[in-house]
Amino acid sequence: MLQRAPGATALTGQTVTSKSGVATTVTRVVGLSDGYEERWMATAVARLTKTEPAAAVQRADTGRWYAVEVSAPIAAGQVTGVPGAVLSSAYGLPSLAGLAQLTTAVAQLKARLGVLKATKPQGKQAARLHQDELSAVVSQLNQENVRRMALVFGVSDSEVNLIRSKIGKASGRINVIGAPDLNSPSGSHGPVAGQKDLAFHPDLVTAIDLNEDKLDDPARAQATLFHEAHHLKDIRFAQDWVRAYQKERGALWVSGSAGVKPFQAWLAIQVTKKRLTAGDAQLVVDESVDVTATTEARANIHTFLTVLQLGDANQAATLLRAYARALPPVGTQYGAPPAKSPVTSELVAELKTAYRTLPTPLRAAYRSAVKDAVAANPSAWIMALTIR
After folding, report:
1. Is 38 helix (H, G, I), strand (E, B) or coil?
2. How crowded is residue 359: how many other Cβ atoms within 10 Å of its Cβ?
3. Are 190 and 216 in a shared domain?
4. Cα angle at 217 between 4 and 232, to 5 degrees?
5. Would you say residue 315 lies in a domain?
6. pLDDT digits (tens, 9 = 90+) for 149-186
7. Which helix (H) or strand (E) holds 29?
8. Residues 261 and 298 in one domain
9. Is there a smaller number of Cβ atoms within 10 Å at the N or the C end of the chain?
10. How many CB atoms lie within 10 A of CB 6?
11. What is the pLDDT of residue 83?
């Protein structure tokens, strides 16, 4: 699945210059040849493939992001020297070289913190020394932990926001919850606290979050980042269409069931004009009324397909089986898209098209993963993904 189409090869040879003035060249595109809608989806792909040195670059003409290998390391974060003809933006990914050492350091600091919390010093001087060490260990642990998370996700330290609960989520950051609720999902996407209205509207600010303990399995954390970034993409897509509706129709968009019919009718016209697909229109409508079944179907299926295309058949099968078990009637975590909905029809068509491009071993892995998922929930809509 590496650099297999003209859209991808057009990026090879492009040069960007780091903040320190070092020029580096794109040598290879990894992942899909037509890229991804969100930068964090591209960085997740670069990390899942363990590409080094790596960057995420954005095409100027399409705005899509690509995971790429480069000829020389680029400092983590946004690159300033990007030619505008082909590339409009680029971000360097930090090297994975220090991840093992940081993981060990974090584990040791957590162990030491546990000992300190269990210790009850006797006397004022001992208590003061104990508190000083406790504060120092907490500070160092937070610092090293953020560095570890940044390496796992392939971003700069400043993009990681280590918090205690969802209330502390910040937009534009990868929020990592240090003390998640019991049985909480690996990650989630939702409104940032402090806004007057937390229901969908065109200016709603949302953010993603992941549980810290999931970073013990970097590949799972990276797949979760891809999944949650997909939700972020979906809601921005819906908000863009609401703004287009208000501007082009000259009408005020009304939230909830009261305004959904005229909005839905306008979207149907845009489908006939081929400005978006019927599945995209369904996504926009569902997002506008806070129905999550469609975005969950898209995020789960696209994450499964991406992980499979990158060669990790075991994790792909695990992800698809987990999605199946979360659907009714077996599970209650997700709602099921309506039967014969355009979004599921488009997902089925997309996967069957992708299946034909897979190498023979991954075709077998696809069939096995779908069979396993259907066995976990025979009534789920994913039985439509079966290929014999």
Report:
1. coil
2. 11
3. yes
4. 60
5. yes
6. 999 999 999 999 999 888 899 999 999 998 777 777 88
7. strand 23-30
8. no
9. C
10. 7
11. 66
Contact residues for 175 (Cβ-Cβ < 8 A; gap 6+): 161, 163, 166, 168, 169, 207, 208, 209, 210
How many residues does this entry show for the chain?
388
pTM: 0.93
pLDDT at 6: 39
Contact 175, 207 (CB under 8 A): yes
174 and 252 in a single domain? The answer is yes
Q: Could you tell me where the DSSP H helices lie in the chain?
A: 6-9, 39-48, 99-118, 124-153, 218-249, 257-272, 278-288, 293-309, 313-326, 342-357, 360-376
Q: 370 and 261 share a domain?
A: no
Residue 319 Cα distances to 163, 199, 218, 262, 370, angstroms: 26, 29, 15, 37, 11
Q: Where residue 2 falls among pLDDT bands split at 50, 70, 90?
A: very low
Q: Is residue 124 part of a domain?
A: yes
Q: Measured between alpha carbons, how far is 236 from 246 in angstroms, rounded to an integer?
A: 15
Q: What is the mean pLDDT of residues 38-62?
A: 95
Domain assignment present for residue 109? The answer is: yes
Query: Which two three-digit tokens encode residue 244?
Result: 């287009």
* Final residue in a domain of this structure, among 128, 153, 178: 153
179 in the same domain as 114? no
Domain that holds residue 347: 293-385
Model confidence at 5, pLDDT cuts 50, 70, 90, reads: very low
| Residue appearing with tokens 């079944």 | 293
- The larger pLDDT score, comparing residue 3 to residue 353, is at 353
Instruction: Give the pLDDT of residue 9.
Output: 54
**Mean of per-residue pLDDT scores for the chain:** 92
Nearest 10 degrees: CA dihedral of 128, 133, 138, 139?
A: 100
**108 located within any domain:** yes
Judge if 181 and 258 occupy the same domain.
yes
Dihedral sign computed on CA atoms, order 40, 55, 26, 80: positive
Total domains in the fold of the chain: 4
Neighbours of 4 (CB within 10 A): 12
**Matching residue, tokens 């994790």:** 315
* 208-251 tens-digit pLDDT: 999 999 899 999 999 999 999 999 999 999 999 999 999 999 98
